[in-house]
Specification:
By secondary structure, the protein is of the alpha/beta class. The protein has helices spanning 10-25, 39-51, 59-62, 73-85, 97-106, 113-119, 127-140, 150-169, 191-198, 246-258; strands at residues 2-5, 31-34, 90-92, 176-181, 206-211, 234-238. A 6-stranded parallel beta sheet has the order 3-2-4-1-5-6, with helices on both faces. The termini are far apart.
């Protein structure tokens, strides 16, 4: 299962934790994979959990979460605690930042050749998918993505989705739950598509937590945000995290980076 979030919406994390508890109450024992964790943090995570198998609070310090750039660990802690309460493994799902930067510079040459072939990263996207993905990247960066970098950013997105699919496919035991941004759990070109490429028989269920927009008065109108259709198995509407325009928040973040 793939739980797609808006990263800074605390309601989304509460609901993700609730769903994990519901799965375990029903007898499931999935691995819980986090987009926010990378292979370079895996060793520290494993050592911490070996010593503190039921304490999610200390994960942040163990993996140096503050340096990661993700929202405060307090938002993600309920998800991790729900997993640990049930004795579920927690694993890193994403690429390391250094590898992401290398892919941005060198393309697939920065990745293991077998990994590239396995996930078809050396094969061009269809024109319509490429254009749709480029538009999503422009929108998510509020028009601040340099046009000459959009192609590289598409390559990074594909590599990250493939890596997260790999984490799900190699998870031991009773399947896996992925905690990731909503764009990564799209059925059309996100992580589920890479899972199906490797294992066409694999069953994936993607749930996107979508913030309610006061300007949209019916569920169908939200499809416009995703290219004309909602590319998820389920959509769970939630209140917005705050009233501030997301592009205004993005602008402020860019200004802070320039200081």
């Amino acid at each position: 299962m793939l739980f797609g979030e808006t990263h800074d919406n605390p309601d989304h994390h509460v609901l993700q934790a609730r769903l994990i508890r519901a799965l375990t109450a029903a007898g499931r024992r999935p691995v819980v994979a986090f987009e926010m964790l990378t292979p370079s943090q895996a060793g520290a995570l494993a050592r911490y959990l070996a010593a503190h198998p039921r304490e999610a609070a200390g994960i942040a310090e163990a993996v140096n979460w503050k340096a990661s750039g993700w929202p405060a660990w307090a938002m993600y802690e309920p998800i991790a605690q729900a997993a640990l309460d049930a004795g579920l493994p927690i694993v890193a799902a994403n690429l390391d930042d250094e590898r992401v930067r290398a892919v941005g510079r060198q393309g697939v040459a920065a990745l293991d050749a077998a990994f590239v072939r396995r996930h078809g990263l050396d094969q061009p996207l269809t024109t319509d998918v490429r254009e749709a993905l480029a538009e999503e990247i422009r929108d998510s960066h509020c028009g601040h993505a340099p046009e000459e970098r959009v192609g590289a950013m598409i390559g990074v997105q594909r590599a990250r989705d493939a890596q997260m699919a790999e984490a799900l496919l190699t998870a031991p035991g009773d399947g896996a739950v992925l905690i990731a941004g909503a764009g990564h759990v799209r059925n059309d070109w996100g992580v589920p598509a890479y899972v199906r490429r490797i294992d066409p028989a694999a069953r994936t269920v993607s749930i996107a937590f979508v913030e309610v927009d006061a300007k949209r008065t019916n569920a169908e109108s939200y499809a416009e945000r995703f290219g004309g259709r909602l590319p998820f198995d389920y959509v769970w509407f939630t209140p917005a995290g705050d009233d501030e325009d997301p592009c205004e928040k993005f602008r402020k973040s860019l200004e802070r980076l320039k200081r």
